[in-house]
Every structure is written in structure tokens, then in C-alpha cells.
Amino acid sequence: MYIPVQSRINSYLFFSLTYPKNHLE
């Protein structure tokens, strides 16, 4: 299934909000 670029960006933003960089570190 092809995922639009904007959709990927939205997912990335949502992921970032759900898992802050501090959590990753």
C-alpha cells in the first residue's frame, strides 16, 4: 500500500509527540 509523504510526516510528528527524544535517550 502506497503511503503519501504527508501521511508519513503526520505519523512521524505523532510518534515524536508520543515518544519525546528524552524518552528515546
Automatic annotation (TrEMBL):
Domain of life: Eukaryota
Protein name per UniProt: Uncharacterized protein
Organism: Gossypium arboreum (Tree cotton)
Organism ancestry: Eukaryota, Viridiplantae, Streptophyta, Embryophyta, Tracheophyta
